[in-house]
Design goal:
Blueprint: H1 2-32, E1 43-52, E2 56-68, E3 73-87, E4 92-107, E5 112-124, E6 132-149, E7 152-161, E8 174-182
Antiparallel strand pairs: 1-2, 1-8, 2-3, 3-4, 4-5, 5-6, 6-7, 7-8
Length: 183
């Protein structure tokens, strides 16, 4: 009987060693060939949020959704809503601005990137006729990204509007600061 139990023990040890060795090889292979990133792992969100109070009250909510195409190239879309109110003893003006944008970024280093975007805004004209106008802008510039967690970063950009018009709501250069968060 001892010989049968010894044979079973011998085969059990061999089988266990074989299984352990197989798992060790599989984990080594995983390290050599990491799994492909899922679509959702390449998405990021974020945007800008700004407020100012006083004679000029300004609120800006500009969320974005982006996709990392490669390690260096990303693109995305965004929406913009701005509330603007100017009031002093002579003048009282209030308006809502809304629109959207598409953008592309190229990461030169881990921290510096180029940024280009097309922005469309609809706003109330700053003239004596009560009417709304469409403003199209092409903004190009550079940015700095500071990672604050594994999938989160603070982003600062300095942009130039190459299609500035009389109705453009901001002047060159444009400074933006916001947050990006990976999904």
């Amino acid at each position: 009987m001892r010989s049968k139990s010894s044979i079973v023990l011998f085969f059990s040890v061999c089988f266990s060693f074989f299984i352990a060795r197989s798992f060790a090889q599989d984990s080594t292979m995983l390290r050599k060939h990491p799994p492909k990133e899922r679509f959702i792992d390449k998405l990021f969100t974020g945007g800008n949020l700004g407020v100012q109070f006083g004679t000029v009250t300004f609120v800006d909510v500009s969320p974005l959704l982006g996709y990392r195409i490669t390690d260096k190239i990303s693109a995305g879309i965004g929406a913009t809503y701005q509330y603007y109110h100017y009031k002093d003893k002579f003048y009282d003006f209030e308006t809502n601005v809304y629109g959207g944008r598409i953008f592309g970024r190229y990461l030169f280093t881990d921290y510096l990137f180029g940024h280009a975007e097309y922005e469309y805004l609809n706003l109330e004209a700053f003239d004596f006729n009560k009417r709304r106008v469409d403003v199209n802008s092409v903004l190009v510039g550079a940015g700095y990204i500071q990672r604050i967690a594994d999938r989160a970063a603070i982003v600062a950009m300095l942009l130039y509007n190459f299609t500035e018009s009389a109705y453009t709501p901001y002047t060159n250069p444009i400074f933006r600061i916001g947050v990006n968060i990976g999904l």
